[in-house]
């Protein structure tokens, strides 16, 4: 492995583990950091993360550890793959261990509760890294499909194009095709807001509605995402790309999506607490919907679907009421 890019992936859930496999398949020397010793030991010994990706064979070259210092030692790419709401706390502990010039790549698709910050903003704030050291990867990338090596594309955004290109080269495989972009705001918002729209699509699914309803939610969801993006300085073309429409369509349509599945259970009448108890995996939209709505309010952007999701998730509104509220809005031009 001499000369290979050294990468540390922090977070051994479904996407962190899958992306560690992608990097290893692309020829990087990868160490995956897990919180639980039994999971790290099982990944190393059995070549499988049975908790998050049962049946997926992980590359021999992939190492796992619970020791963050060991994972980060000599890494030139540091990949952050924990739930958005725990990033600040996790990263505060990891910051003293970060190699000084390493690229910091966020895989996360959420907005921080309380601050309405994007993940790259949290990363810069906690680590003191300049914005040009921080990148985001976002696109239609349901972990299980990528882990099974089904072909897919993605976007790596960084204000420093050279750095985006270096990360692109480090994770390019026969089944995973990254494109570069310099629009951090657009890529991060696309990823965070699509989870909220996927919750709405799940609710519709759970209520027994079909393709027209989903297509309407996807299209109007994209419209509200782009409105917010425009207000925050994103490039509108980003929302027509992989990190916008691409991810939105995949997540809103796939039974593999945790957000869509979460919404589906709400749509069938389960309470938020019941759904939360039924899964150990992260459905980012449940927490991010509120800060997304706050961003909209702060910038004078109407986000009716996001607002409806906030009301169902956090204000006790039923799925049936949510439909009524969305459908009885004032008629307007597209
Ligand atoms: N799973 C997927 O298909 C994709 C996920 N993402 C994004 O990647 C990020 C990570 O998601 P997943 O790996 O899917 O999540 P997950 O729920 O499968 O795993 C989360 C991982 O973070 C660890 N963790 C560290 N600190 C934690 C804390 N305080 N609380 C809970 N868990 C903690 C967990 O132990 C676990 O290994 C999310 O922002 C998600 O939106 C993005 C693309 C695809
Ligand atoms: O971001 C994803 C696909 O690109 C995964 O979506 P979920 O978090 O809803 O599973």
UniProtKB/TrEMBL annotation:
It is found in: Cytoplasm. Its main location: cytoplasm. Pathway: Membrane lipid metabolism; glycerophospholipid metabolism. Signal peptide: none annotated. Pfam families: NAD_Gly3P_dh_C, NAD_Gly3P_dh_N. One of its GO terms (biological process) is carbohydrate metabolic process. Catalyzes the reduction of the glycolytic intermediate dihydroxyacetone phosphate (DHAP) to sn-glycerol 3-phosphate (G3P), the key precursor for phospholipid synthesis. This is Glycerol-3-phosphate dehydrogenase [NAD(P)+]. The gene is gpsA.
């Amino acid at each position: 492995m001499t000369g290979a890019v050294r990468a540390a992936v922090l977070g051994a859930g479904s996407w962190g583990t899958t992306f560690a496999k992608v990097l290893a398949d692309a020829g990087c020397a990868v160490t995956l950091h897990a919180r639980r010793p039994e999971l790290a030991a099982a990944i190393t010994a059995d070549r499988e993360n049975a908790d998050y990706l049962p049946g997926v064979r992980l590359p021999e070259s992939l190492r796992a550890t619970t020791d963050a210092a060991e994972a980060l030692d000599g890494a030139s790419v540091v990949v952050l793959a924990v739930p958005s709401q725990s990033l600040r706390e996790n990263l505060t502990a990891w910051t003293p261990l970060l190699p000084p010039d390493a690229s910091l790549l966020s895989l996360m698709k959420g907005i921080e509760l309380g601050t309405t910050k994007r993940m790259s903003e949290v990363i810069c704030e906690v680590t003191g890294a300049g914005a040009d050291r921080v990148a985001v990867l976002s696109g239609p990338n349901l972990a299980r499909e990528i882990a099974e090596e089904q072909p897919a594309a993605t976007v790596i955004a960084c204000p420093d194009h050279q750095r985006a290109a270096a990360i692109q080269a480090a994770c390019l495989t026969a089944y995973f095709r990254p494109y570069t972009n310099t629009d951090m705001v657009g890529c991060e918002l696309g990823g965070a807001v699509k989870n909220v729209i996927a919750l709405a699509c799940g609710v519709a699914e759970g209520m027994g509605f079909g393709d027209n309803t989903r297509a309407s939610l996807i299209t109007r969801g994209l419209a509200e995402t782009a409105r917010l993006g425009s207000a925050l300085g994103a490039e509108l073309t980003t929302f027509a790309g992989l990190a916008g429409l691409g991810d939105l369509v995949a997540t809103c349509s796939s039974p593999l999506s945790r957000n869509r599945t979460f919404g589906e259970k709400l749509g069938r009448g389960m309470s938020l607490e019941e759904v939360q108890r039924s899964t150990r995996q992260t459905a980012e939209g449940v927490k991010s919907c509120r800060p997304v709505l706050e961003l909209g309010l702060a910038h004078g952007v109407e986000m009716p679907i996001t607002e409806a999701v906030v009301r169902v998730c956090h204000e006790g509104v039923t799925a049936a009421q949510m439909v009524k509220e969305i459908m009885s809005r004032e008629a307007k031009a597209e």
